[in-house]
Recover the amino acids of this structure.
């Protein structure tokens, strides 16, 4: 399958965007002062684990999409 140059750049940009958004989210999650991510004793809550799983999944998918886009950009040169 051959990707167009436009689609390849879109996939690469999406992969980068995914990392930017989810890294920011993960930082905010671990610095949460509202009591959602950590209870009063400082132990992680279910909220933290669920959202951490979402972030890790998004890192993996964003990386895969970005790599496909990068390969498409390189192949179109």
């Amino acid at each position: 399958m051959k990707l167009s140059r436009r689609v390849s750049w879109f996939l690469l940009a999406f992969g980068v965007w995914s990392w930017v958004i989810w890294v920011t989210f993960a930082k905010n999650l671990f610095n949460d002062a509202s009591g959602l991510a950590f209870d009063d004793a400082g132990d992680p809550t279910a909220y933290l684990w669920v959202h951490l799983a979402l972030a890790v999944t998004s890192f993996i998918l964003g990386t895969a999409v970005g790599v496909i886009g990068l390969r498409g950009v390189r192949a179109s040169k």
In short: The mean pLDDT is 94. The helical segments are 5-30, 46-75. DSSP finds two helices and no strands in the chain.
